[in-house]
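Whether sequence alone determines local backbone shape is best considered at the level of individual chains. When preparing material for the folding task, we compiled for one chain both its residues and its backbone structure tokens. The sequence in question and its structure tokens are set out directly beneath this paragraph.
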Amino acid sequence: MKYAPIVPLVLQSAAVLADFHLLPVYFKAPSIAHFRDIIQNETYDFGCRPATFQIEDGFKLHAFLTEAQIDHFSKAYKSTKLTLHRDAVKRQENTAPIGSGDRFKVGAVAPLGLGTKGPGAKISTLLNVGEISSAIKGLVNAYDISVLNLPHLTFEGATQFVGFVGGGGPDKSRYHLYLTAGSHARERGGPDQLIYWVSDLLAANKSGAGLTYGKKTYTNAQVKSILDAGIVFFPLVNPDGVTYDQKTGSLWRKNRNTKSGTGSATGVDINRNFDFLWDFPKYFDPSANPASISPSAQTFRGTAPESEAEAKNLVHVYKEFPKVRWYMDIHSATGDILYPWGHDEGQSNDTSQNFLNPEFDRKRGVVGDETYKEYIPSADDSNLKNVAAKVVAAMRAVGGRSYTSGPGVGLYPTSGGVADYSYSRYWGIKGANKVYSFTMEFGYPTNFYPTLQEFNENILDTNAGFTDWALSTIQVGLE
């Protein structure tokens, strides 16, 4: 197998260690195969998507570990070719501050992104959870956008909502683009990016102007075409987790459900809780580790498919807006644009090899084998690849930062993920619309808390990426 300079790996189980000080480290090895043992260690935190980077003398893999874990590794792997190094970049120092008040004054002020401001403009703080709600109220008051409260309260009692703009006004069958952010609590900046992008579209549409993100520019006609496509946006999928992470700075990932445990066993990984091959011991090869059944693991799948309100609400949006054709889930941090499949490699020749066929139970999830590869129509595969490539090109063009694209599976599979779930609905749910799904991993590996400069760069990059994504989807087709 040939490896690209950057090879995304899908996150395996890693215990939440919120009560301990996590230190940025990286592993080095002469080949990716040397990482296979540690990547399955449920006590190691490899970030949202463990990613290997090719270097001059092999590969490296970023992680967060405690001092105790570093000490244990140094002893257990002393005589191997796998080595551990402390990262010189202190990812939790000099991070972008979080807003302490309400800059939108309970909706009296509308948010405005960087695409409608002059070169060099900056946003000085991240949005706090209250400001996310206030920003949406500001968009309602300034542009008369619509908001839908979702039916399920989170574990801590939060009401979730989506905004929808353009399209057919109140006609929910005319909305085709769906974007979500804030599923993993510690991945700071995703909700901000989504809100500021929608704000820019609305402001540019109202003023008759275009948008500029670094070296990328867009016309007012392009802005109008995107709004005409109809956008549904869910800016904060995990409000309980984000509130906790912003309060504690603990690199918290999951939600805050305590039904399965407390302390490090609190919470469910929302992005392993969807009804797609959720019961992985039944569907996957025993050697695969696509999620975890341990409440103390960061990839804990929950007690049942869509056991969590956050997952239920995200799925409910598909019922409210039945003609959504394109979906984007916003995460950090590896610098990738990913698309199906994420549970196994894809192929377009054998239709019998599909997630609904029990003949292949306990055979899925082994990357590089010939026993099973998930079927994907060649036209779908081409559409996904082409749109992802255009998003990558746009994000690179903004300021020259590196991004790549590819299937979500990388070298390691996932189960219960929202991207695979969204794409699979067409085959698994009678009458469901086909949804082309993507995951955007902005930023740098393990850089969940960006500096203020990085935060602003991330806004520019992702907003150009969203814009080209939307324009590309329109070109492929919305119906």
The chain has two domains: 6-86, 108-479. The domain at 6-86 is CATH 3.30.70.240 (Alpha-Beta Plaits). DSSP finds eleven helices and 17 strands in the chain.
